[in-house]
Specification:
- It is built from twelve helices and four strands, in the order ααααββααααααββαα.
- The chain is of the alpha+beta class.
- It has one domain (2-50, 76-312, 320-462): Up-down Bundle (Outer membrane efflux proteins (OEP)), CATH 1.20.1600.10.
- It has a four-stranded antiparallel beta sheet with strand order 1-2-3-4, covered by helices on one side.
- Strand 1 and strand 2 form a beta hairpin.
Length: 467
């Protein structure tokens, strides 16, 4: 009989061990999901903590490989973006908040720890089969059917919301880097164009001097030298603007240092326009802010369901084992047998007002989330209208300058220069043609930069690449 009791007690212990092992398997699944997302976001070296910049240590203390800055000659947007994402402290913070939420899924969806109780009799209790000396009890609480699963789903929705916030931060970082990159790229083109125009003007000096030698007026040479001085000043002003624009791009990437970054070269073709209805559909499907609000609404819907489940009792199953010594009298049937008792208990959820309040709280939070979705959609569509206008306007201007105005301005300058050499055009006509070409060249590059910046803003709104 004693062996049977011990076998039953061992079976209960074995069942609890099995439940614990299943929980460990689920924990491994969460860990794999975290590592997969970490690699997706930060790359293979993404295990480094942002705090590792100073001491080369991870937040938990282990050494990790340092993320290297791009080479000094690198001027590639993709390299800059990848580096900026890996080093941005705000993005790392958002990722760790998501990770924290993921780690809570298992905590709220796992059975509570079993309880072991030991009791020692101060005075042994005499029974017919022998004195009872101590007791051992093991119990496990089981929440009502569906409670654990619902709690896990509530926390999973919270984790999904946090991941949407990670994506929103990632898009914000990418937008800042791209915007700064194309502004820096425009400055490079503006410097190049202005320097090219300076070379063209200096090429006219010998012509003006020959005209003076032939008895012509010095007015043309003086005016040319004044114009050259103005262009040289413009070049110097543009070059001095390089340091602050480089600092802005460095800050967006969290790239330390004082030396200006190498000049970037824009590869923009600005040859594609997008329909507004298509962009709005992308926003509704992929914008991370909207996704976060939808996850919040779904979480509150699950909380309503959980509040209803809390009205049902939780059960506790237990097993008690009483260690009993042999009977004082010989020949007693069952002498020394240890009693084994199964127990069942449950709580009585009588505080109905508390559960009603929890349900009302969840309903109000869900209504707030739904209202926030509607408002956020309106705000996003308003921003999209503005950025779409900027994109379309830049697209139109790029085509206008590239296909019409710039070729004609170059042709007009060539014709005017030939006429000036022949004496049939004034120096004023030549300078005016030169200024028009300079203005158009800069406007073309400005439109290309505006196109890429507006496209970056639209992709941040849509939550995905659209080109």
């Amino acid at each position: 009989m004693k062996k049977i009791v011990e076998l039953r007690f061992s079976s209960v212990v074995g069942l609890l061990v099995l439940v614990s092992a299943l929980g460990s398997c689920r924990s491994d699944g969460v860990s794999r999901a975290i590592e997969s997302r970490r690699t997706q976001l930060f790359g293979p070296s993404g295990s480094q903590s942002i705090m590792g910049d100073s001491d080369g240590m991870h937040a938990e203390g282990e050494e990790v490989p340092q993320i290297q800055e791009p080479a000094a000659e690198a001027a590639d947007l993709e390299i800059y973006t990848r580096y900026g994402l890996s080093k941005n402290a705000g993005l790392r913070s958002a990722f760790e908040r998501w990770r924290s939420a993921m780690e809570r899924i298992l905590q709220v969806s796992t059975l509570p720890d079993p309880r072991f109780t030991f009791g020692q009799y101060i005075e042994s209790v005499e029974t017919r089969t022998g004195p009872q000396e101590n007791t051992f009890a093991l119990s496990q609480t089981f929440p009502w059917f569906g409670k654990l699963e619902t709690r896990g789903e509530v926390q999973r929705q919270e984790a999904n919301k946090r991941w949407a916030e990670v994506l929103a931060k990632q898009l914000a970082v990418e937008l800042e880097i791209r915007d700064a990159f194309y502004e820096y790229s425009y400055l490079f083109e503006a410097v190049r164009i202005t320097e090219d125009n300076l070379v063209l003007l200096k090429r006219l000096e010998p012509i003006a001097q020959r005209k003076i030698q032939g008895g012509g007026s010095q007015d043309d040479l003086i005016r040319l030298q004044v114009e050259i001085g103005k262009i040289e000043n413009d070049v110097e002003t543009l070059k001095k603007f390089r340091r602050p624009l480089s600092a802005r791009l460095r800050a967006a990437m969290n790239w330390r240092g004082d030396n200006p970054l190498p000049w970037p070269k824009s590869k923009s073709k600005a040859d594609q326009s997008f329909s507004l209805p298509m962009l709005k559909d992308r926003i509704l499907k992929s914008n991370p802010d909207l996704l976060a609000l939808h996850e919040e609404a779904e979480k509150q819907a699950l909380r309503i369901e959980l509040a209803d489940l809390d009205r049902y009792p939780d059960f506790t199953l237990g097993a008690n084992y009483i260690a009993t010594d042999t009977a004082r009298s010989s020949g007693v049937s069952g002498s020394g047998d240890d009693p084994f008792i199964f127990t069942l208990s449950f709580n009585i959820p009588i505080q109905r007002a508390k559960y009603d309040a929890a349900e009302n709280e969840a309903r109000a939070a869900r209504a707030a989330a739904i209202a926030s979705i509607r408002q956020r959609e309106n705000d996003l569509f308003s921003s999209l209208d503005l950025q779409s206008y900027k994109l379309d306007d830049a697209f139109r201007q790029v085509a206008l300058y590239r296909d019409s105005l710039l070729p004609r301005a170059r042709q007009a300058l060539e014709v005017t220069e030939v006429a000036y050499r022949a004496g049939t055009a004034s120096f004023t006509d030549l300078i005016d043609s030169q200024r028009v070409l300079l203005t158009f060249d800069k406007a073309y590059e400005r439109a290309r930069a505006n196109y890429e910046q507006a496209l970056a803003a639209i992709e941040a709104l849509c939550g995905e690449k659209i080109r």
